[in-house]
Amino acid sequence: MTQNDGELDSLVRRRIRALRVAQGLSLEELAARARLSQSTLSRIENGQRRLALDSLVTLARALDTSLDQLVETAADDVVSNPVVDGAHGMMRWTVKADPGMTVIRQRLTEPPPDNPARMRAHPGHEWLVVLSGTAILLLGNRRLRIETNQAVEFPTMLPHAMGAEGGPCETLGIFDRDARRGHQRGAGAAQR
For residues 183 and 162, what is the distance between their CA atoms, to the nearest angstrom? Predict the structure, then answer.
């Protein structure tokens, strides 16, 4: 076993105990859920028993988590820098926990389009919060006013467009993979 294997082993053992404690489970309760003896679970947590794949799978299920989450290592790159998309007037961060998700910060300066034909619909789902100013979201037949610290969430198959009201506003949005693609295909800097 290499030093990195030993560090991972120790991390997994600490994670099992931390999840058990966070869920308010005793050794006895988690052992019963995992169909292990209490002494086996104790030895797994304190490093006196080898971590076996079958035990890890069983423990992950008993702790309502996945094996991947139980054994994932801490990433060295916990700080991420945005990608600046000057053509669309936004900054974009990829969410590492789910590569299909993207966080986008956008500054809107123009009101939403007057022409309903400029509203777009595409597959996906979007959530956003207004960081400053006031945004206007045209969503289907509705006109929604979103003020600072308010958030909206909607399926992007509804025709939609967004702009600023009474001056610039900044938004921070979380887009699933399909919504991000739909917005990258021609979204202007001031509206979507």
Answer: 12
Domain that holds residue 91: 83-184
Task: Enumerate residues 6+ apart whose C-beta is below 8 A from 111.
Answer: 136, 163, 164, 165
Within a domain: residue 163?
yes
Same domain, residue pair 11 and 44 = yes
* Two tokens, residue 133: 């100013």
- If asked whether residues 52 and 125 sit together in one domain, one would say no
CB 80 within 8 A of CB 93: yes
Q: What percent of the chain has pLDDT over 90?
A: 30
Instruction: Dump pLDDT digits (tens) for 128-146.
Output: 899 999 999 999 889 999 9
Q: Is 93 in the same domain as 173?
A: yes
52 shares its domain with 100 = no
- List, in sequence order, every beta strand (DSSP E) within 21-116: 83-85, 90-94, 102-108
**112, two tokens:** 């939403």
Q: Looking at the predicted structure, is the pLDDT value of residue 47 above 70?
A: yes
Is the overall model pTM greater than 0.90, yes or no? no
